[in-house]
Write a structure and sequence with these properties.
Elements: H1 2-26, H2 28-48, E1 52-64, H3 71-79, E2 88-89, H4 93-100, H5 103-110, E3 113-116, E4 119-122, H6 123-130, H7 133-136, H8 157-174, E5 175-179, E6 184-191, H9 194-216, H10 218-252, H11 258-295, E7 298-303, E8 311-312, H12 317-348
Antiparallel strand pairs: 1-2, 1-6, 1-7, 1-8, 3-4, 5-6
Length: 356
Amino acid sequence: MEHEVEEMSLIDMTNSLKVFLAEFKKKWLTVCIIVFITSLMGVIYSFIKKPKFTAVSTMMLESSKEGGSMSGALALASQFGLMSGSSSSVINEDKLVEIIKAETIIKTTLFKKVTIDSTTDILANHFIDLFGYKKVWEKDESLKGFRFVNTRDNLTLKENGVLKMFCTQISLNSLTAEKAKSGIITIATTTESESFSKYFNQYLVEALTSFYVDHITEKGRKNVDITQKRVDSVAIALKNSEFTLAKWKDASNQLVKAQGLIEEMRLRRNVEVCNSIYIEGIKQLEMSKFNLLQQTPFLQIIDTPSLPLDPMGIVSPAKGAVMGFIVGGILSVLFVFVEKKYMSLKLEVPFPKKQV
């Protein structure tokens, strides 16, 4: 019984396929028109579609291990061979990947001045010219002829609004950043302009490096500045004390009385105190500098983009025609199938007769 059911089902499927092929042959003209239109659209698409260019940079982040208040002394000791082993490790790649798409980094990059197509301007204005905004904004009175004319720190509300929009679009559509298990970070910029992709990627890496190093070493740099100011102040006090002592000796004419001896002892004491403080300050300054040096991360740029870049997404007319042919064939099958089903349902469900 089951064998008979399976045989009947197979016969039904075969008959349905024959009916469908017969219907498909009847609609050959419609099928040819659909396939021709989609193939033509594929060829037109191949001429309209612009290739995209991807600029890629790779880097590796390394930094010395933190060693507390003695890290500067440890660095100094390692220079004299008193320590063995490596004192560096890869750190904070995840944080670095996250801040690549930060608005601050992209804004800094967009205000770098470069020459593209014989025109020297900031990347933000090149972005307007290269990607159709200038033409689109011709219909908008508020943005017609818009250009960035102020510096990044003195933007108008309109300039800041447009810049924010650019940052969002670049972050979402043109910029990717990935970290491999090995710790190598890959930064890719993809646009329809070969030059823009290259320069934007190049200056983005520079802005990222500068921001990250400044952020990591901010505390250390402040310590060095404070210590330097104190050392300079003590140096002035020491110089004044030495000058006062020399002046007193010149005025005494080698005649030293008891009161003069006390004055000389006081002046010498001031010089010795200032000298001790100065020597200690110099030690602290050098320690701070070594500490800052050890805290400074080392960003090693492995690869940088260079022209020419390889185009991506190029569709030849032949490939476009084949793609259109395949799409047209699928649409033709769907069209015939849906029409046949519709006609079958129309015959099965009679229209209600009108009552007289």
